[in-house]
Specification:
Blueprint lengths: L8 E5 L5 H9 L3 E6 L2 H16 L8 E5 L15 E4 L10 H7 L5 E4 L10 E7 L2 E6 L6
Length: 143
């Protein structure tokens, strides 16, 4: 919650059924977006969010779901977001944290289960969040 305000934009890479974006919606005033590339999982997420909206438990004006690849610039621009949550239980081959750092804007906070490898000089470590690494991108990466 310390990282989120009404002007913050939260992005969940690989949002699954939407648990994190719903939590951000319920416990902060930030706008939350999730992206999921598996249509079946996205369908489950949409059903859950419709039910929560019907019950009056979420503000759907501050919640967005996108079907697609988070690394496809035609689908989403990661430069728009202040906090990026990325969890990759399957390892580096599933989500490359260095690619997230490359695409994030300077000042963005990234929460991940590993630290970047080749972009370490472009980040500032922050206090861990729920056992996950948190760091801020402090410089543009020009290669």
């Amino acid at each position: 919650r310390k990282l989120l305000s009404s002007s913050s934009r939260f992005f969940d890479v690989g949002s699954g059924i939407g648990t994190n974006i719903v939590a951000v919606n319920c416990f902060s005033d930030a706008h939350a977006t999730g992206i999921e590339k598996h249509p079946g999982i996205m369908q489950i997420s949409n059903v859950m969010i419709r039910r929560l909206k019907r019950l009056g438990l979420i503000d759907s004006d501050r919640l967005n779901l996108v079907l697609g690849d988070a690394f496809d610039s035609r689908v989403v621009d990661l430069q728009q977001y202040d906090v990026l949550y990325v969890y990759s239980p399957l390892g580096k081959w599933e989500i490359d944290i260095d690619q997230v750092v490359d695409l994030a804007k300077v000042g963005a906070v990234i929460v991940f289960n590993r630290l970047p490898v080749r972009n370490r000089e472009f980040i500032e470590p922050l206090e861990k969040i729920a056992g996950l690494f948190a760091f801020r991108k402090i410089a543009d990466i020009r290669r």
